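Supplementary Methods. Inverse-folding protocol.

Structures were first reduced to a discrete structure-token string of length 94. This string, shown here, constituted the complete conditioning input.
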């Protein structure tokens, strides 16, 4: 399950440091606050809160079966696509 940890970490770095200049708030409230900003409205389409929650659910789910692996693969694929757009549109850090 290393990949969804990596996607979550990348999301946190982008949201915290590129979109919010180092805001120390917890990730979920920070994502909510960020996507409400007009200049970052494009983040609403990425459904980041759902991705974060799904990753947390999968990380704490001990059974590895085909359905779980399929959910994991789908989450990773969708999250990587979201991260690509977030990186392309991220403000630069001064």
């Amino acid at each position: 399950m290393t990949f969804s940890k990596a996607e979550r970490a990348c999301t946190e770095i982008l949201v915290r440091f590129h979109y919010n200049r180092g805001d120390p708030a917890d990730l979920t409230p920070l994502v909510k606050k960020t996507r409400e900003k007009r200049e970052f409205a494009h983040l609403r389409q990425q459904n980041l809160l759902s991705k974060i929650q799904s990753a947390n659910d999968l990380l704490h789910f001990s059974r590895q079966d085909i359905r779980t692996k399929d959910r994991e693969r789908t989450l990773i694929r969708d999250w990587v696509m979201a991260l690509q757009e977030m990186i392309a549109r991220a403000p630069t850090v001064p």
